[in-house]
Specification:
single chain, mainly alpha, 4 helices, rod-shaped
Length: about 180
C-alpha cells in the first residue's frame, strides 16, 4: 500500500512538473501560465495520496509549532510582566529608601537643634557651665552617631531589598528559560 502511494505521489509530481515545463512563457520574463484548476486538481490528488502517517505528522508538526509559538508568547509576557514588576519594586524600594533617609536626616537635624539649644541653656547657667559643655558635646556626638546608624541601616535595607529583587528576577528568568527549553 505504501509503495503504491509513493509511486502515485511521484507520478502526480511528474505530471505537475510536466505541466509547468510545457506552460507558455510570457515574452519579457521567465513567468509562465498554467491551467489553475488542473494544477489544483493534481495538488489535491497528491495530498490525498499521502500516507496517513505523513498527514498526522504534518498535523502534529503544525500543532506543535502553534503550542511552541503560544508558549513563546507566554514566556515573553511573563518576562515583560517580571520586568514591569521589577521596575515597580525598584521604584518603591527607592522611594521608601529616600523617605527613610529623609526621615533620618530630619531626626538628626532635630536632635542637633535640641542639642544646640540645650547647650546654650547649660552655658547660661554659671555654676554648671563646664558640665553643660561636656553634656552638650555628648549629645552632639550621640546625635551624629544616631544619624550615622540610621544612614547605615537605610543603606543596608536598600541593599537587602535590591538583593532580594535581583534573586527574584534571576529565579523568574531561570523559570522562563526552563519553560522555553522544555517546549
Amino acid at each position: 500500500m505504501a509503495m503504491e502511494q509513493d509511486v502515485q505521489s511521484l507520478d502526480l509530481l511528474d505530471m505537475l512538473e510536466s505541466m509547468i515545463n510545457s506552460a507558455k512563457k510570457t515574452m519579457f520574463n521567465n513567468k509562465a501560465s498554467i491551467d489553475r484548476d488542473e494544477a489544483l486538481g493534481i495538488i489535491d490528488e497528491l495530498r490525498n495520496s499521502l500516507p496517513e502517517e505523513t498527514v498526522r505528522a504534518s498535523d502534529f508538526y503544525k500543532r506543535s509549532r502553534e503550542v511552541w509559538s503560544q508558549a513563546n508568547d507566554n514566556a515573553d509576557d511573563i518576562m515583560a510582566k517580571a520586568k514591569g514588576d521589577a521596575g515597580d519594586i525598584i521604584a518603591d524600594a527607592q522611594k521608601e529608601a529616600d523617605g527613610i533617609v529623609a526621615d533620618a536626616h530630619n531626626q538628626a537635624e532635630v536632635i542637633l537643634q535640641d542639642a544646640g539649644q540645650r547647650r546654650l541653656q547649660l552655658i547660661e547657667e554659671n555654676s554648671i557651665t563646664e558640665a553643660a559643655k561636656a553634656r552638650a558635646e555628648e549629645i552632639i556626638a550621640e546625635a551624629n552617631a544616631r544619624a550615622k546608624e540610621i544612614r547605615h541601616g537605610t543603606r543596608e535595607y536598600v541593599d537587602n531589598t535590591l538583593l532580594g529583587l535581583s534573586e527574584f528576577l534571576a529565579k523568574t528568568y531561570n523559570e522562563v528559560e526552563a519553560n522555553r527549553k522544555s517546549m
